[in-house]
Design brief:
single chain, 341 residues, mainly beta, 4-stranded antiparallel sheet, 9% helix, elongated
């Protein structure tokens, strides 16, 4: 029987108790009052309503979480907890430089100015019947950058040369974004001297992803840089380099012409080369021994050459646009008289 003296019991809603205790635990860990393992166990009990087993083994086969997203103010980070065992209830605690952030646990975190310069990590807390509370903490991100950060260096995806057009094509993609949007690109290349072959710089729109430099000098090392620009200024440059190879020559069918007899003159017919206006040099060989290196295209046969075998190596030059070309004649044998005698 209830009388006026019977006290009235007022029960505080369990949800409010859980939230209040969770915030208190977070503050305790941040102040160094409670160590992280104890905080994880208490936080698990509060957030999941489960009572962890005592003197029990940890949950087996637990993955390490990862964080996706760019660490810049206004950007959102997302935790990827990985595949925990079935019937495991998990919760999350986000950390800035190892200290917990006081907020409702979530799989995402939107970065604020208070986190500038700090490295963000996240602890995943797992509770499973029959096991001890188990935690895994991700690797920290790079330091959080502020809203006026310039863009990071772009990523060069390819550097391709074309010897026929004497060109270099560079392609790239933006690096991790700064919090100031990219408004354009500055692409610069080195050169030789001044004028058309000298250094060159071009400004490109924000959607550009490639550039072609043509009519270049073969066999010259070109250094190329790509820089992203934003309202906060230019960021660091990405560097690449390339050499345009000279075009290969198309050698002709070189032959030795003239009578292979004493007192006659042997000459070299170089045949049809591409390019036709190349400069030719001749290397004469007698009995497999070189007798003249890059000399004239004729040989005066002496009586002492009787029975000797001659051939010629032809070298063609047309620099810098063409690579050196080579051809070799068939061998001829010096005889005592006209062929057939």
């Amino acid at each position: 029987m209830r009388t006026d003296r019977t006290p009235t019991l007022h029960r505080r809603p369990a949800r409010r108790i859980g939230v209040a205790v969770g915030v208190a635990l977070t503050l305790a860990l941040g102040a160094g009052i409670m160590p992280a393992p104890a905080f994880a166990a208490q936080q698990a009990s509060v957030s999941t309503g489960a009572r962890p087993a005592t003197d029990a083994p940890p949950i087996p086969f637990v993955p390490t979480p990862t964080i996706t997203g760019y660490p810049g103010v206004g950007y959102t980070l997302t935790v990827v907890p990985g595949p925990w065992p079935e019937k495991t209830r998990i919760s999350y605690v986000w950390l800035a430089d190892g200290k917990p952030l006081v907020r409702v646990p979530s799989t995402t975190l939107t970065l604020e100015p208070a986190q500038i310069g700090k490295r963000i990590s996240v602890t995943v807390i797992g509770v499973k019947s029959g096991y001890a509370v188990t935690t895994r903490t991700s690797l920290p991100t790079a330091p959080v950058v502020g809203p006026n950060t310039t863009p990071s260096a772009p990523i060069i995806t390819s550097t391709v040369t074309d010897r026929d057009t004497r060109s270099i094509t560079v392609t790239w993609k933006p690096g991790p974004p700064g919090t100031s949007p990219i408004t354009g690109w500055i692409v610069a290349r080195s050169g030789a001297g001044t004028g058309p072959d000298g250094p060159l710089q071009r400004e490109l729109p924000a959607d550009a992803r490639s550039i072609v430099f043509d009519s270049l000098i073969p066999d010259l090392l070109y250094k190329i840089s790509v820089t992203a620009v934003s309202a906060a200024g230019p960021g660091p440059a990405a560097q690449t380099s390339a050499i345009v190879p000279p075009r290969p020559m198309q050698p002709g069918a070189a032959t030795i012409v003239g009578s292979p007899t004493p007192f006659s003159t042997l000459r070299v017919d170089v045949g049809a080369w591409v390019p036709a206006d190349a400069d030719f040099r001749y290397e004469w060989w007698r009995n497999n021994r070189r007798i003249f290196a890059w000399s004239e295209n004729y040989w005066q046969v002496a009586p002492s050459d009787l029975g000797a075998t001659f051939f010629v190596v032809v070298r063609a030059e047309k620099r810098p646009l063409w690579a050196s070309g080579y051809a070799q004649t068939d061998a001829v044998v010096i005889v005592s008289g006209p062929p057939g005698d």
